[in-house]
# Entry
Amino acid sequence: EVQLVESGGGLVQPGGSLRLSCAVSGFILSDHYMDWVRQAPGKGLEWVGRSKNEANSYTTQYAASVKGRFTISRDDSTNSLYLQMNSLATEDTAVYYCATPPSPSEGYLYYWGQGTLVTVSS
Amino acid sequence: QSVVTQPPSASGTPGQRVTISCSGSNSNIGSNNIYWYQQLPGTAPKLLIYKNDQRPSGVPDRFSGSKSGTSASLAISGLRSEDEADYYCSTWDNSLTGRVFGGGTKLTVL
# Structure
């Protein structure tokens, strides 16, 4: 059974940093693209970025709104995906989801975690 | 504002058929597959339709998708109270080099 479990959310001050984790099981992490998607309170879904798989050199891509501030990384040996968030602003307040396709050959998000809430406030 | 546009709300009575539209451009819907997600309050999104018109296992055939040019739509027939949720279209945008989501449509079952 595929499982994705996010952690690391919490309250952080504007300008601060936070690292989110996504623990995965039920599939080989190195084979899969992994995305981060966020949802501000009462708002819609917003793509944050993704890490391609090992076959694609773990290349990362980011939304313009987070590029240069957020970094996606992974540790395949511990089945973990990370989202390092720096220079946080109030508009980064959201539930952050990690998600992945159903198989390495697909490009759409099928499996999702339950999300972790990040609140940026003074 | 998202580059793909959905109506903010839709509604219908039980048993009715409702459609939700998703409009984009040549750089997104016009050249890539469209996906639809259902999100119930407090839960993660659930895939309803993939590759424009395909249903994952377990999704009732009351849900159907279509795409034409730079627009797509999700149809829900035989509307049920449990269909009350937020619905999002999603695709890839070649110009932005990123995944995009529509702004979401809140479906109310009257």
Notes: The radius of gyration of chain B is 13 Å. The interface with chain A takes residues 2, 33, 35, 37, 39, 43-47, 50-51, 56, 86, 88, 90, 92, 96-104 of chain B (CB under 8 Å). The first strand of chain B starts at residue 9 and ends at 12. Residues 15 and 79 of chain B are 5 Å apart (CA to CA).
